[in-house]
Amino acid sequence: MPRPRVKGVPLGFMLLFVALLMSCLPVPRMSDVRFSFAALQEKPVSESKVVPKTVTTLKQDAQKAYQDGVQLEMNKEYVEAVAAFREAIDIDPQFAEAYAHLGLVQIELKNYLEAIGAFKSQLAVTPQEPEKLAVVHANLGYAYERSKDLDQAIEEYKKVIELTPNNAEAFATLAAAYGEKDLIAEAVNAYQRSLELRPNNKETLRAFGALCTDNNLFVEATHIYDRLYSLDKSDAEAIRSLAWLYLKLESYPKAIEMYRKLLAMEPESMGERLSLAIAYEKNSQPDSAIVQYEKVLRTQPENSQLYCNIAFLYSDAKKPAQAIENAKKGLELKASDACLNCAWGRALERLSDYEGAIEKFKLAVNDTQWGDYAQKQIERQQKLIQRKEALKEKEELGY
What we know:
Elements: E1 5-6, E2 9-10, H1 11-24, H2 30-42, H3 55-74, H4 78-91, H5 96-108, H6 112-125, H7 130-146, H8 150-163, H9 168-180, H10 184-197, H11 202-214, H12 218-231, H13 236-248, H14 252-265, H15 270-282, H16 286-299, H17 304-316, H18 320-333, H19 338-350, H20 354-362, H21 371-397
Antiparallel strand pairs: 1-2
């Protein structure tokens, strides 16, 4: 049977030609196959373009980070707030409020140098408007003050005043910095300037009063606290300060008046009651002083010093028996107490028992606090004994 032909070409020859042709073609590698397949898979249906964020979008992102920081600051999560404010600044380097809050949060974290840096950066982006610049300088001054750089703090507060000359708060803040640096005259002047601008500001009056009191300017302090009292007759702190100052200035009737007012408001205040007792005692009102001391004693029955004070006052009130009774009670709590022995000796003098008084005063001669007093009293008793003997002799001789 004849072999089949293709257009006159024997089929076998045709198959041989195809085989030779295939052997000359390059054989694809498996990696080429995989790459082609992967490329086919990853090829997008339609290519997308990356759209850059607009200025508006960036502002919104910065505002979002800033608001997050404010919330964290309010929650006292200061470390996280720092990160949020820094993010806002990274997005918008002109974000003045973010610098301000970053500085304040750094102060809370006691990172004062970082706070100073934040406020300085805020200055660079703050509009050249006096009120806005003054706020930044005030915060910068506060950061310097907290870092104990008082000289630089004072300079910043002065800049605030240069920018806003009628800023009463700036003068008060400057005064406080002067006071901390012990520049008392400068502090007084700054407080006075602040009060010229804002006469009835209680916070400034209290700070000024405290400065004067701490620096022994008692007369000036009295005037200041009297202004506070005139503004509010129920101001307990003003009354307390006035009472103490009047006592210090030996204006005992006024001190008594103020302590009585204070105790009407705070009847359980034993410290103030004790001061009232002292004021009565200094004002030569022993009976009134005894009443106040005994009220304090009821709350402090183990206080031997109170027995001593009461014993002396009973002697002054010409009640020596009660004086000795209280001295004995005190000595039961504190044996050999020099004060109590002196009080007992004083009472014995009232009873004209000068020899007995000498024995009591001798028990206190070696005491560091009461020794000099006891020795003088011994000498006094000896003179009284001599006088007593002289009078007796005079009576006996009839002349």
